[in-house]
Amino acid sequence: MSSVTRFAPSPNGLLHVGHALSAIIAHDVARKNGGRFLLRIEDIDLDRRRPEFVTAIFEDLNWLGLTWEEPVLVQSEHFSDYLAAADRLIAMGLLYPCFASRKEIADAADPTKTDPDGSPLYPGIWRGASAEAIGTRMAAGDTPALRLNMEGALQTLKEKRGDKPLTFVEIAEDGSQQTMTAEPARWGDAIIVRKEVPASYHLSVVVDDARQGVTHVTRGQDLLAATDLQRLLQELLDLPEPVYSHHRVIRWSDGRKLSKSNRDMGLRALRDEGATADDIRRVIFA
Length: 286
Ligand code: GLU
Hints:
- By secondary structure, the protein is of the alpha/beta class.
- Helix content is about 35%, strand content about 15%.
- The protein has helices spanning about 15-30, 50-65, 80-90, 100-110, 130-140, 150-160, 200-210, 225-235, 265-270, 275-285; strands at about 5, 35-40, 75, 95-100, 145-150, 165-170, 175-180, 190-195, 215-220, 245.
- A three-stranded parallel β-sheet has the order 1-2-3.
- Strand 1 (about 5), helix 1 (about 15-30) and strand 2 form a beta-alpha-beta unit.
């Protein structure tokens, strides 16, 4: 079966060898079976995105010898689509406004409970808030984030699917397949529409993977837990289920993550030092 894959970087820094691994795996999976490789610019973080990083993504991927289909999808041009998906969840009664600040959440949260990203699990401050309380904040000009009522979402899932467990298929590098159980509840009442922008990472990813017909999501192991929440959103929004491959993440030998902001192992710097695209492939697949 031919697959549609994508590389979906956020243009808030220069690409490093970890991104090269993600991009090359997505590219090679598609090329191996006559599929399609797509590039998506995930720039909903309007404060951090920079046009020069978008240009650098194209240049660095070109240098790696990768080719992708045009046009490239740029998420910031599609906010209305993410809002339309959020509207469906609102109509299902599954989103609620939350005006709590980071500090208010940290103060009210149970310190022993964190989500898979390590953030305090949202303690439900605005869940079930009165129309009056919401109206007062709106009248004051405050913009809320919209959170998923996780309990309600799991209930809706049950009504749609009965007791069929929420799962996804994970394909390892050697091609072996495993069915994994998704546990979205560990994200709690996650943010689906952010305060600052009319979207969130999880919402825009599922909308775009479906819109672009992505059949095989390849990305780093660091996004494995995100799959749980994304599978839930796909089911709630009646979107198709892709298969997944979460590949190893390249780190420093002491376990530290590579960082875009420190320009760790940046592709541009390596190229300037005389490395070739073949050198990069050799290093990441060593
Ligand atoms: N934009 C995300 C990142 O740069 C990747 C999203 C994904 O592959 O699902 O980490």
